[in-house]
Design brief:
Helices cover 40% and strands 19% of the residues. With 176 residues, the protein is α/β, with parallel strands linked by helices.
Protein backbone atom coordinates (compact mmCIF):
# COMPACT_ATOMS: atom_id res chain seq x y z
CA UNK A 1 0.00 0.00 0.00
CA UNK A 2 1.28 3.46 -0.88
CA UNK A 3 1.75 5.85 2.00
CA UNK A 4 -0.44 8.93 1.99
CA UNK A 5 0.96 10.37 5.18
CA UNK A 6 0.83 14.11 5.94
CA UNK A 7 4.48 14.37 4.84
CA UNK A 8 3.46 13.79 1.20
CA UNK A 9 2.56 17.17 -0.25
CA UNK A 10 1.68 18.46 -3.69
CA UNK A 11 4.55 17.93 -6.09
CA UNK A 12 6.38 15.44 -3.86
CA UNK A 13 6.97 11.85 -4.85
CA UNK A 14 5.20 8.96 -3.23
CA UNK A 15 7.27 5.92 -2.34
CA UNK A 16 7.54 3.48 -5.24
CA UNK A 17 5.10 0.60 -5.16
CA UNK A 18 3.71 -1.93 -7.55
CA UNK A 19 0.68 -1.23 -9.68
CA UNK A 20 -0.65 2.28 -9.96
CA UNK A 21 2.38 4.08 -8.55
CA UNK A 22 4.42 3.35 -11.65
CA UNK A 23 1.81 4.63 -14.12
CA UNK A 24 0.19 8.01 -14.71
CA UNK A 25 -3.40 8.14 -13.47
CA UNK A 26 -5.96 10.95 -13.49
CA UNK A 27 -8.89 11.57 -11.16
CA UNK A 28 -11.71 14.02 -11.77
CA UNK A 29 -14.55 15.67 -9.91
CA UNK A 30 -16.67 16.59 -12.93
CA UNK A 31 -18.55 19.87 -13.18
CA UNK A 32 -18.38 23.44 -14.44
CA UNK A 33 -15.54 23.75 -11.94
CA UNK A 34 -13.76 20.45 -12.43
CA UNK A 35 -11.35 19.32 -9.75
CA UNK A 36 -8.47 17.21 -11.01
CA UNK A 37 -5.55 15.32 -9.51
CA UNK A 38 -2.93 13.33 -11.33
CA UNK A 39 -0.23 10.97 -10.24
CA UNK A 40 2.55 11.10 -12.79
CA UNK A 41 4.53 7.99 -13.70
CA UNK A 42 7.25 8.78 -11.14
CA UNK A 43 4.75 9.10 -8.28
CA UNK A 44 4.53 12.92 -8.21
CA UNK A 45 0.99 14.17 -7.53
CA UNK A 46 -0.31 17.37 -9.09
CA UNK A 47 -3.79 18.81 -8.68
CA UNK A 48 -5.95 21.82 -9.36
CA UNK A 49 -9.23 23.03 -10.78
CA UNK A 50 -10.37 23.90 -14.30
CA UNK A 51 -13.28 26.18 -15.09
CA UNK A 52 -15.60 25.32 -17.96
CA UNK A 53 -18.12 28.12 -17.54
CA UNK A 54 -19.27 29.40 -20.94
CA UNK A 55 -18.91 33.05 -21.87
CA UNK A 56 -21.98 34.99 -22.88
CA UNK A 57 -21.10 34.45 -26.54
CA UNK A 58 -20.56 30.69 -26.37
CA UNK A 59 -22.97 28.14 -27.71
CA UNK A 60 -24.26 25.42 -25.39
CA UNK A 61 -21.65 22.87 -26.40
CA UNK A 62 -18.54 25.01 -26.05
CA UNK A 63 -17.86 24.04 -22.44
CA UNK A 64 -17.78 20.38 -23.49
CA UNK A 65 -15.47 21.07 -26.43
CA UNK A 66 -13.09 22.95 -24.11
CA UNK A 67 -13.27 20.01 -21.67
CA UNK A 68 -12.36 17.55 -24.43
CA UNK A 69 -9.50 19.78 -25.55
CA UNK A 70 -8.25 20.00 -21.97
CA UNK A 71 -8.30 16.20 -21.68
CA UNK A 72 -6.16 16.04 -24.81
CA UNK A 73 -3.63 18.42 -23.27
CA UNK A 74 -3.55 16.29 -20.09
CA UNK A 75 -2.74 13.22 -22.19
CA UNK A 76 0.05 15.15 -23.93
CA UNK A 77 1.48 16.37 -20.61
CA UNK A 78 1.27 12.89 -19.03
CA UNK A 79 2.22 10.40 -21.72
CA UNK A 80 1.24 6.88 -20.88
CA UNK A 81 -1.91 7.87 -18.98
CA UNK A 82 -3.13 4.45 -17.90
CA UNK A 83 -6.40 5.08 -16.03
CA UNK A 84 -9.02 7.71 -15.26
CA UNK A 85 -11.15 7.70 -12.11
CA UNK A 86 -14.08 10.04 -11.59
CA UNK A 87 -16.64 10.78 -8.93
CA UNK A 88 -19.74 8.78 -9.77
CA UNK A 89 -22.69 10.92 -8.78
CA UNK A 90 -26.07 9.18 -8.68
CA UNK A 91 -28.13 11.99 -7.19
CA UNK A 92 -28.04 15.69 -8.01
CA UNK A 93 -29.73 18.50 -6.13
CA UNK A 94 -30.79 20.30 -9.31
CA UNK A 95 -31.69 19.50 -12.89
CA UNK A 96 -29.01 21.78 -14.35
CA UNK A 97 -26.29 20.09 -12.30
CA UNK A 98 -27.48 16.68 -13.49
CA UNK A 99 -27.46 17.79 -17.14
CA UNK A 100 -23.98 19.31 -16.85
CA UNK A 101 -22.59 16.23 -15.11
CA UNK A 102 -24.09 14.00 -17.81
CA UNK A 103 -22.49 16.09 -20.55
CA UNK A 104 -19.06 16.01 -18.93
CA UNK A 105 -19.39 12.28 -18.25
CA UNK A 106 -20.35 11.61 -21.87
CA UNK A 107 -17.34 13.56 -23.14
CA UNK A 108 -14.99 11.87 -20.66
CA UNK A 109 -16.08 8.32 -21.38
CA UNK A 110 -16.07 8.87 -25.15
CA UNK A 111 -12.58 10.40 -24.93
CA UNK A 112 -11.35 7.47 -22.82
CA UNK A 113 -12.83 4.96 -25.26
CA UNK A 114 -11.29 6.78 -28.23
CA UNK A 115 -7.87 6.81 -26.55
CA UNK A 116 -8.16 3.27 -25.13
CA UNK A 117 -7.75 4.48 -21.54
CA UNK A 118 -9.61 2.49 -18.87
CA UNK A 119 -11.97 4.54 -16.71
CA UNK A 120 -13.95 3.90 -13.57
CA UNK A 121 -16.53 5.79 -11.56
CA UNK A 122 -16.13 5.80 -7.79
CA UNK A 123 -19.29 6.32 -5.69
CA UNK A 124 -19.38 9.51 -3.61
CA UNK A 125 -19.84 7.62 -0.33
CA UNK A 126 -16.85 5.40 -1.06
CA UNK A 127 -14.61 8.41 -1.61
CA UNK A 128 -15.81 10.20 1.52
CA UNK A 129 -15.52 7.08 3.67
CA UNK A 130 -12.00 6.43 2.43
CA UNK A 131 -10.57 9.81 3.47
CA UNK A 132 -12.80 10.80 6.42
CA UNK A 133 -14.15 7.50 7.74
CA UNK A 134 -17.67 8.85 7.20
CA UNK A 135 -19.64 8.17 4.01
CA UNK A 136 -21.72 11.33 4.32
CA UNK A 137 -18.95 13.80 5.24
CA UNK A 138 -19.59 17.40 4.26
CA UNK A 139 -17.35 19.56 2.06
CA UNK A 140 -15.49 21.10 5.00
CA UNK A 141 -14.67 17.65 6.41
CA UNK A 142 -13.37 16.51 3.02
CA UNK A 143 -11.13 19.55 2.67
CA UNK A 144 -9.81 19.10 6.20
CA UNK A 145 -9.12 15.39 5.64
CA UNK A 146 -7.15 16.15 2.49
CA UNK A 147 -5.22 18.92 4.25
CA UNK A 148 -4.43 16.46 7.06
CA UNK A 149 -2.75 14.29 4.42
CA UNK A 150 -0.43 17.15 3.44
CA UNK A 151 -2.24 18.67 0.46
CA UNK A 152 -3.50 22.24 0.03
CA UNK A 153 -6.69 22.08 -2.04
CA UNK A 154 -8.06 25.41 -3.27
CA UNK A 155 -11.66 24.23 -2.88
CA UNK A 156 -13.89 21.19 -2.43
CA UNK A 157 -13.60 20.23 -6.11
CA UNK A 158 -9.83 19.85 -5.89
CA UNK A 159 -10.14 18.10 -2.51
CA UNK A 160 -12.57 15.58 -3.99
CA UNK A 161 -10.27 14.90 -6.95
CA UNK A 162 -7.33 14.31 -4.60
CA UNK A 163 -9.51 12.02 -2.48
CA UNK A 164 -10.44 9.98 -5.57
CA UNK A 165 -6.78 9.71 -6.52
CA UNK A 166 -5.79 8.60 -3.01
CA UNK A 167 -8.57 5.99 -3.07
CA UNK A 168 -7.31 4.70 -6.45
CA UNK A 169 -3.72 4.53 -5.18
CA UNK A 170 -4.54 2.97 -1.81
CA UNK A 171 -6.92 0.35 -3.22
CA UNK A 172 -5.06 -0.27 -6.50
CA UNK A 173 -8.14 0.95 -8.35
CA UNK A 174 -10.60 -0.87 -6.12
CA UNK A 175 -8.81 -4.22 -6.19
CA UNK A 176 -8.11 -4.14 -2.42
Amino acid sequence: MISTSPSVARGESLPPATGLATRAILSLDLGTTTGWAMQLAGGVIESGTMFFRPSRYDGGGMRYLRFRGWLGSIATDAPGLSAVYFEEVRRHIGTDAAHLYGGFLAMLTAWCEQNKIPYQGVPVGTIKRHVTGKGNADKAAMIEAIRARGFSPADDNEADAIAILLWAIDTQGGVR
